[in-house]
Each structure stands twice: as C-alpha cells, then as structure tokens.
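User: Here's a chain of 335 residues. Predict its fold as tokens.
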Amino acid sequence: MKKLHFIYTPTTGVGLHGGYRGDNWFRGRVEIFKKYTLKSLLNQKNKDFIHWFSFRDEEQYSQIVDDLRKYLTSIKYPFVFTFDGLMYHDDKFTNFTFKTCLRNLLMMVWDCWRYKQLSNPFRILRYAFENKNKTLLSRLTWSLGDLKRFWKGEPWIYLTRIDSDDMFHRDAVELIQEVEPKEKRAITIQNGYVLNHTTGQLADWNPPTNPPFHTIIFPADSFFNVKLHKEYYGKYRSHESIPHVFECIQIPDKNYCYAIHGNNISTYWNTDKLFMVSASNKTNISTRWHLNKLRVWWLKRKNPQLKTIREVHPFIGKEYTGEEKNRILKTFGII
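Assistant: Prediction complete.
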C-alpha cells in the first residue's frame, strides 16, 4: 500500500534551555549528524523517504542552519526544515507545577556552571516557567501545512523518529516500510548497538524500556489535520510510552545504533559512583555523584571509608573490537 515516509529529527527546541545550548553545542551536533547519522541514512537500501528537521523559530536566520541546508542540497538529499520547535509533547514539561519549574531552573543554572557557559539570567527564568506544550497545537499548524506539499494522495504516513547523533542499520528503512499500515500502529526496535563517538567503543545496547527509535503510522487524514494529529498521540509523553499508546510491531534487534559523545543530556558510557565499602558489601550512595559534589565532600569528611569507583552504564552489554566491530560499523555506513 502506498505511503509517504518522513524521518523526523527534532534538532533544536527540545528540553531545557529553550531547547538550545549555545552555538558551540549546535555546531558540534551538526558535525556529528553529518559524520554519523547522515551517513547511515545515505547508506539505506531503501531511500524512499524525506528527512524532516525541526528547529526553533530563532534558527530561521542561523548561519549554522543555512550551511546545513546548502550542504544537504549539494548532495541532493531529500529534506525539509520547519521552524516551529518540537512537534510532539516535551516530557520535560509534563508536570507543569511550581516545583517542576523550580527544578528546571536549578538544572539550567547547574548546566551553566558545569559547562562554563554564561547565559542571560532573565532568559533562564523565562525558559524555566515556559510551558512549551501549551503552544503545540498552533506550532503544528504551520509545520504540517509545510509538509503537506510533499503529499501526493498516499493514504498512510509513516513518521520515524531519530536523533541527530544516532544511526540506522542499512536495512532499517526497508524493514519499517515492509510493515503493513494500520490505524494506531507503531513500529519499534528494542535492542541495538551503542557507539562512543569520543573513544570509538562499540557495544550492545539493551534498554529495559522502549528506546527513542520508533515509527508511528498515521492515516493521512489524521496526520495533516492539526487537531487530529495531536489527538492521535493520545497519552504519549515520551518514547518510553509508545508501547502503552500504540499497537507495536517490533522489527529485528540491532537495526539502530545509539550514540554517546560526552554532550548527551542524560546518558553516559561510564560514570563515577560513590560507595560505602565494608568488609561484606558495598552500598550505593549516589549514582551520579558529580552532580552532588558538596554532598560527596561532606559524606567523605564524615566517613573516610567512602570510595568512588567507575561503572559502565547498565544498558551496555558485550563490547566489540577488531574485525567484528568494523563489520558492524560498515552496516551503518560510517566506515
């Protein structure tokens, strides 16, 4: 059955800081996209898709975006840019209470200190109390109207999500499009690989919940109707809720590669953890101790038995090296 397939990358406008962590961060993400994500998509067996990038309104006149547009045009890559921010519910603003706003404010202040980035305090205050989900309907109106020019009457729209630093196996698009369309159906991939962009390490990635790689199948009438589009997501709050909202068809594992590169918002390859060491056991005190340095200092001062050790992320499985690693990376088009 005929379908129109969009691969969607929410590029800016996601999460805290108004969805933008500075020009250096943005340039770095674009370079990572070109080096990894784009190569994996150019390597697809089935290239019958349009890549949809969403940005904030502020990026309409960004030189970084303009350079990316010129580059994608020069290689004849099928893409569309929209400038209305994130096109689905932002889970950082799910519980919009004073407590949540205060937490968001403190997290942004911490980020500024941690990454040594100066930021306008009034802008941070505005971002902390800004409910982006409240304006989603109006923002969808403009973006979906722009996407409709690619529609040639196909009855079904496939919307595949991938971040600007992750990758798909060369078979992924083909496998996604082979799934029969049905209303309220989604396509998922459970386990995959993880690549450390900084060290070059490659390993299995085995998350216990649904990872951020999914395709939602829309009837075209629901996709391009702004109100129906928003309602179609139902109780969707993040990628983890996909199996609870949609009837999911799972394609084979190992068809995606997740990225870790040091600038992720919430994911690490390994991290320092603080343990109370005794003769018989060790008790975890803080799983992300570098976010609680004053607390760590105070606990260590009171009890010299406390030690820090380095632990690998619990989702990471078997690590690959040598020819086996190169063989896997070739299937993602990056070597």
